[in-house]
Specification:
The structure is a homodimer. Chain A is α+β, with helices and mostly antiparallel strands and about 110 residues long. Chain A has 5 helices and 3 strands; from the N terminus they run ααβααββα. In chain A, strand 2 and strand 3 form a beta hairpin. The longest helix of chain A is centred in the C-terminal third of the chain and has 33 residues. Chains A and B meet through helix 1 and helix 5 of A and helix 1 and helix 5 of B. The structure holds a DNA duplex (20 and 20 nucleotides). Chains A, B: Keywords: DNA-binding, Transcription, Transcription regulation. Chains A, B: InterPro entries: HTH_HxlR, WH-like_DNA-bd_sf, WH_DNA-bd_sf.
Amino acid sequence: MQVTICPERAIMEHVTSKWGVLVLQALFDGASWRFSDLRRELEVVSEKMLTQTLRTLERDGFVHREVHPVIPPHVEYTLTPLGKGAADHLVALFSWIAANQPEVTQAQERYDGS
Amino acid sequence: MQVTICPERAIMEHVTSKWGVLVLQALFDGASWRFSDLRRELEVVSEKMLTQTLRTLERDGFVHREVHPVIPPHVEYTLTPLGKGAADHLVALFSWIAANQPEVTQAQERYDGS
DNA sequence: CAGTATCCTTACAGATACTG
DNA sequence: CAGTATCTGTAAGGATACTG
């Protein structure tokens, strides 16, 4: 995804990307997910973006993709230990945001009113 | 910035946006910054994007904008206590990524090679 | 079911010029 | 110095149709 000044920034962008954040979160508290379930969970994500996001996170070693060779196809996505580490931080951040959301909303109203 | 399913997601997107991450980080370990210095620090950010990012973070109550009415203009940006809280998490995440970057890079090479 | 492959759109981002 | 205002291009993202 776009410019890569340094490897760290690139990884940061994968992890904090719009859908990356949500995928890691879902995998964090859901253990194992199928493609379609994940899609429903995230709401309004297109197939293309979900696939792209999962591939990027799989490539980074954050997500494990388990294919069961049956018909119809059955694929399970889980966090790797590495992905768990990243997700930990993301979930902590999101919890903080949820806890402080009222304060932020107030700040916004103050800003818009002045 | 774009679709807002819920307030939390919107705030998350501000904080984890490409330039939001970098601005919060810089403010975190630099105390106070002038516009131009910040621009130099982040490298290759356009004036427009830096302004836009700072405004969004200011509106959210994360960043304080101090204008000194002199000529030429002098403006200082600092983190608010609220912004400090968000930046804490971001910095923790980035440290984790820096520490685990080698492992991620290895995973990428494995993925690309197979 | 779990994806690819296409096409299409817009909004994000950058460049440039100008101003208080 | 610290921005705004405008213009413009690109690529991120979405909708749809199709496939193993």
